[in-house]
Specification:
mainly alpha; 2 domains; two-stranded antiparallel ribbon; 2 strands; globular
Length: 365
Amino acid sequence: MAKGSVKAFLERKNIEISARRYGIDALSAMAQGLFCSLLIGTIINTLGTQFHIAFLTTPVWTVNETTAYTVGGLAVAMTGPAMAIAIGHALKCPPLVLFSLATVGFAANGLGGAGGPLAVLIIAIIAAECGKAVFGETKVDILVTPLVTIGVGVGLSAWWAPGLGAAAMKIGALIMWATELRPFLMGIIVSVVVGMALTLPISSAAICAALQLTGLAGGAAVAGCCAQMVGFAVMSFKENRWGGLVSQGIGTSMLQMGNIVKNPRIWIAPTLTAAITGPIATCIFRMQMNGAAVSSGMGTCGFVGQIGVYSGWVKDVASGAKAGITAMDWIGLILICFVLPAILAPLINSVCRKLGWVKDGDLTL
């Protein structure tokens, strides 16, 4: 096929091979899919457990009499399909391709483990474009399009997803190594790495859960996630106003990933903030995450990170490991999770603006 013919074919199929389409549009959409599944499911589970809401803690469906799903559990189980369909929507896939991506996302996320979101991002893009390429080319689209989309997606999932998952887990190995260091260095490393993982297309919550990241390391992880979420939310308030404050502050900082691809320097402020708040959490306030490990990677998303720290306090008091919840505990939690990120990130970003590294509009969602 001649070069001109290939270009015309891609245009006709709306296949745009570009950093913007894949690194901005698809990535931003995937963040929304992740929030509407894994993150919202974790929030629902946490609310049900902490407030003893029977409807949210009672299984609504049991598979093969062994696997029970709560409302939140069902949302978490749909993480892969939600992300893949969101990506397909951003790539303007026709319905047959879009619906087929549910299977692709399920396979890529499941086989990718903690690196599932990264696997879904790469594999769903390829499967979607292959599906778009064959759509409308035969009289039996209803058979050919799903077969190609699912075949390519599941095949690549079996081939690539475990490797992508293993690569993502190397981040987890770094976190575990960091926990063996003294609290100051550990606080910096864990806070920065987990915070960045939260913003990247890697599941920080899944990594923390898989590694059972609790204790001081879990506290540092919470600090890093809050630095990214609250930091981005407050420093981009001028561009995104209240909607952006809420969607990033109690949603996910991954919404900024598209802007980071365009200008990586916008990431300096929240990352340096994490490097500051992490050791403050571990060395000064000794903030620990002794609740569910998954909460270590949630930050202020639905306030699950803070609820996790609080539930750890309650558990420690009940076991006798902690005499009681003190005023310093609350001061530390509020400062680390909300006040310091809201102050430090905008201040650091203002320096970046003066240096010409960040300009108006760079943080617009």
